[in-house]
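Design request, tokens follow.
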């Protein structure tokens, strides 16, 4: 085994993974994965140039090679930043490869210094990326996988820098068949494979989350859609066992004369009213309350631990907030009618909804703009 063969293996590996990502998920699939493909390309290009530099144009090709490797590390940081929605300033990404290239070209004559500076800069770049991945990784598997692989690679690269700058007499030349060189290239290879697997997992996780969001949220208001709300409300009632002291209130709420708004002001204004109503409701409720868009201009709320006084105050706030908000934003007042019931012990969600809907129907017929409760009280 010699270092050039190992280098060539890393290069081929990086190229194949890049190709596999290109064929498997496409270059435009997701910006984070796209940057990761550039990272792999940078590795292949950098090591390719370093291999050729051992035979021809050493100064120029080795300088371009280390620039490609540093650019590849910048692409890794960019990829991490995009996956985690973090801001990575362009200057901090671009400056290291450019400065490293300039410095490397100038100090090329001093091989040890050039190698030390190169490893130091690239090691710090990878350390940055691995730090972003590991900080707050929590239970996210792909972050641990990519972060640990990158961290090991960063520490090894920084170790090389420390060795060549501090103890140049024991540091082996880059292409010398030394165990340190073999270990470092094998580690690099492993970190490329693990990192790529990690980012594929991240890509899959993100796609899964997008699907879950799509299946459970109403796209216009961002509230839970009817199916998801029913699921969660059913689970909440099941968990509470419908006990009376739980004081669970179900409220069905329907905007008044909404058809008129659509007809007179247009569908987009109607959509705006629905969005505002969603925001108002979300803003007035507690985190433990369950809010959803039941359909059309009807909303459904499950309020836990809600005593009658608290409910009357909340109801008054909701009417007032919707009227004010629509008047301030759209120039006209919108109100709603609602029916509320206290969920009885053992009562099913469907039965409670039916009772609340009956109250809503009564509220509409009693002149709208009001909330009615079964038997007049909750
Ligand atoms: N803009 C918009 N309109 C919708 C949407 N979903 C349902 N609608 C409209 O909501 C209107 C509901 O009308 P109705 O059921 O007659 O209710 P209303 O006019 O509010 O009358 P009352 O409830 O009796 O006060 C219909 O015109 C639907 O087309 C939506 O997502 N956006």
């Amino acid at each position: 085994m010699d270092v050039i063969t190992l280098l060539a293996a890393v290069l081929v590996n990086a190229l194949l993974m890049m190709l596999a990502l290109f064929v498997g998920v496409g270059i435009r699939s997701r910006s984070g994965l796209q940057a990761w493909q550039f990272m792999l390309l940078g590795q292949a290009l950098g090591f390719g140039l370093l291999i050729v530099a051992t035979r021809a144009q050493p100064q120029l090709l080795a300088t371009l090679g280390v620039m490609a490797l540093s650019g590849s590390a910048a692409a890794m940081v960019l990829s991490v930043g995009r996956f985690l929605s973090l801001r990575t300033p362009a200057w901090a990404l671009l400056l290291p490869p450019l400065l490293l290239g300039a410095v490397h070209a100038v100090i090329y004559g001093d091989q040890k210094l050039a190698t030390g500076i190169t490893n130091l800069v690239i090691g710090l770049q990878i350390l940055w990326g691995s730090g972003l991945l590991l900080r707050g990784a929590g239970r996210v598997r792909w972050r641990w996988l990519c972060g640990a692989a990158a961290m090991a690679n960063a520490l090894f690269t920084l170790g090389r820098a420390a060795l060549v700058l501090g103890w140049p007499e024991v540091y082996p030349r880059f292409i010398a068949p030394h165990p340190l060189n073999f270990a470092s290239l094998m580690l690099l290879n492993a970190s490329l494979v693990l990192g790529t697997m990690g980012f594929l997992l991240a890509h899959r996780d993100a796609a899964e989350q997008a699907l879950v969001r799509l299946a459970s949220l109403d796209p216009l208001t961002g509230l839970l859609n009817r199916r998801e709300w029913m699921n969660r409300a059913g689970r909440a009632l099941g968990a509470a066992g419908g006990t009376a002291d739980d004081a669970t209130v179900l409220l069905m709420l329907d905007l008044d004369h909404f058809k008129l708004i659509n007809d007179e002001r247009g569908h987009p204004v109607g959509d705006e009213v629905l969005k505002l109503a969603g925001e108002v409701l979300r803003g007035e409720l507690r985190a433990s309350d369950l809010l959803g868009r039941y359909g059309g201009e009807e909303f459904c709320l499950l309020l836990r631990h809600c005593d009658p006084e608290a409910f009357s105050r909340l109801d008054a706030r909701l009417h007032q907030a919707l009227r004010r908000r629509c008047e301030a934003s759209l120039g006209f007042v919108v109100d709603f009618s609602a029916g509320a019931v206290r969920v009885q012990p053992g009562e099913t969600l469907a039965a409670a909804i039916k009772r609340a809907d009956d109250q809503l129907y009564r509220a509409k017929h009693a002149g709208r703009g009001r909330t009615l409760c079964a038997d007049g009280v909750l």
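Comment from the thread starter after seeing the answer: thanks! Residues 17 and 23 are 10 Å apart (CA to CA).
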